[in-house]
Model the fold of this input.
Amino acid sequence: GTLKAKETDLDMKLHFLRNNSVTCNDGSPAGYYIRESKGSPRWLLFLEGGWYCISKDTCDYRFQTMKTLMGSSSWSQTRRGRGILSPKPEENPYWWDSNMVRLIQLSCSFLPYCSSDVWSGTRPKMENDDFAFLGALIIKEVVKELLSKGLDQAEVLILTGSSAGGIGVLVNVDHVAEQLQTLGHQAVQVRGLSDSGWILDRKNYKFGDCLHVLNCGPIDSVKKGIRQWRTIMPEICRRAHIGEEWKCFFGYKIYPTLKSPVFVMEWLFDQAQLMVFNVTLTGQPFLQGEWNYLQSLGTELKSTLLHVSAAFAPSCLAHELINSNSWIDVQVKGTSLPAALHCWDQNLQGNTHINGNRAPSCPQHVIDSCLWPQCNPTCPQIYDQQSGQE
Ligand code: K4Q
Done:
């Protein structure tokens, strides 16, 4: 055997779920892509993002314009992992042990998002013209099916995801831990890594009419969504917010209720987050009102992350990081995300007690000090979502 794998071995391969009652929105089978490394002690499950829909109209519109986010009929047989899912050491230092000498064996699975419910739903399709919202059950079924592929032998399972998938991590990580415990696999340590899913429930910058999900504020969106999707929240958060379970979609509310260790990656100026607040940033330079809104967003976001024991928060106008190959380039106070994740691993190993004053030599909590967009010189280039130009 050699360390260098064949190019095709690097791809993840598609499997549809055996249980055909667990479907995408349109009733087609849900599934997962997987690249196995036999007997690997580590497993990474990635939840894809891509917004959501919250009503008959917004779901019908989504079905007309984004079919692959609601059904599996056109999914490709293979997928290449990027960022944390890349098997190439030069793109993914996370694959190396802490001394950077030995490859860590890792099995990776990519879960395509086809439930439009922020991975939270349990609602089956009732009639011919409506949709199923089974995100929480898709994760459960994937975990169940992966157990027979070696997940039962794992030491660590990291549930990760970006955007709507990053929120899905927060909502599902304790469910997965409980599921494994119930099935007798308490030796598998379940952890969460949430990317770009730490959203604030603040007031919109401008009014939006909610005819389109992208201008519907975050609070109205999840209030409507939770009814549409029949969302299931983890027990402690549910109990803490009876009748207001929508609050559990917001990181700063759900995080203190979680039992599993969770690492939070969040841009201080997340472009998707700005979109739901209806900050469009079309003109250059920004308007005074936009600046004020941005500054208070950055300040608030930073303050909600101070109580999070493992966090990475660059002052950039950007969206998503762990699934992009540039995830190794961004640094906060001299630490990159893969480096902070290494520290998180190390600190969790052996010593389960989290000490607030940890050695600065291996930082797992880095947040930028400057609080305006792009004050960090390692920020990725701004990508203009409207014109598609850099
Ligand atoms: C209710 C809170 C707002 C959630 C924001 C989710 C953002 C998202 C998709 C991304 C990729 N742009 O899912 O973004 O397509």
The chain is about 25% helix and 15% strand. Residues 62 and 76 are 20 Å apart (CA to CA).
